[in-house]
Amino acid sequence: MTEYYQPIESITVNAATLQRGDIITIGGQPFVVRDLVSLHGGAKRLEFLSGDALTVRWNTILKAARPYRRPARPKR
């Protein structure tokens, strides 16, 4: 059986640069961001695939892993 591993990149993110699919480790547990909800003052509420949620203020800096997305191929 062949396993496929999607390449990921390690990045630094804040509320403005978080994206769906980012993987954030909290207390040694990885959480995959399912949805982002904008809140007052530039904050965002992160909703994870596990059903948990976390509110991140505009100035919170986190380390995250982001699945590598290949650039779109130009149409011919």
Distance between the termini: 36 Å
Radius of gyration: 14 Å
Q: In percent, how much strand structure appears in the residues?
A: over 45%
- What is the count of helical runs? 0
- Please outline the major beta sheet: 6 strands, antiparallel
Which stretches are low in confidence, meaning pLDDT under 50 for 5 or more residues running?
A: none
What share of the residues lie within helices? under 10%
Secondary-structure-derived class = mainly beta
Order of helices and strands: EEEEEE
Mean pLDDT: 88
Spatially, the strands of the biggest sheet line up as 1-6-2-3-4-5
Number of strands: 6
The backbone outline, from C-alpha atoms, is globular
Summarize the structure.
This protein has 76 residues and is mainly beta. 0% of the residues lie in helices and 46% in strands.
Overview of the structural elements:
- The structure is a single chain.
- With 76 residues, this protein is mostly beta strands.
- The protein has strands at 8-13, 23-26, 29-38, 44-48, 53-56, 62-67.
- It has a 6-stranded antiparallel beta sheet, with no helix packed on it.
Spell out the blueprint of helices and strands.
Elements: E1 8-13, E2 23-26, E3 29-38, E4 44-48, E5 53-56, E6 62-67
Antiparallel strand pairs: 1-6, 2-3, 2-6, 3-4, 4-5
